[in-house]
Task: structure prediction
Amino acid sequence: MTSPDGMNWTSQRSASQAEWRSIMYGNGIFVAVANGGMDDNHVMTSPNGINWTMQESPPEIDNWNSVTFGMEKFVAIGANTEEGETAMTSPNGMDWTLATTTPLGTWSSVTYGNGIFVAVDLFGMSGNQVMTSPNGISWTTHASPVAGWFSVAYGMDLFVAVAYLGEGTNLVMTSPNGMNWTIHQSATIAAWTSVTYAEAEQIFVAVAGGGVGTNLVMTSPNGMNWTIQESAAAAQWISVTYSNGTLVAVSLDGKVMTSQSS
Result:
């Protein structure tokens, strides 16, 4: 679906029936990746968000979870196979090359900032739940606090990750370089699913897919100190993004909520 303002939405047809997990815009094109689907291709592209074209993706992997754009290339990550091939790169969203990552894990989110790609892992319990890459091809794992890290974002010269599950409120971690991480307290215990940075407002915003009542949004001016905010509805909020002064969050059951700068 597309919207010119985050409030009025139009349903659009995807290129294939699949579990589309992530979408990114870069170099004049939208790129979406899927986890599973009806065929062997798990990437689609669009010049306008309305008309979508299926693209051939590496047939070895069918579980892509996240895609980002940086250094004039798209980088996608997913769940590990026995071969460890859980990243792929493309200069244009159409031609993709596999990259090998270690260790085994379910890489849930990837972002780009300050010349480096950073990915976080959802189910790993070894404490090596972060990997970084200078180019999207060669990856290095790093020690991190143990939790179910679901989303990572970059802003204010800082990487910020939020967790879907963990111990108490130890559900946020930050890093200045993607390699050295510090745990922080979330505003409440909730299943935090997505975090983004609102550049004009200079604030991080996270949404949750589960929690108490409508306490499913939290904000932070620095990625470390968080304040709970009331969401527009009690829903399984799965993703939040920011553009042109508007925050937009979507839920698994088709709800959309927006917040605009004053």
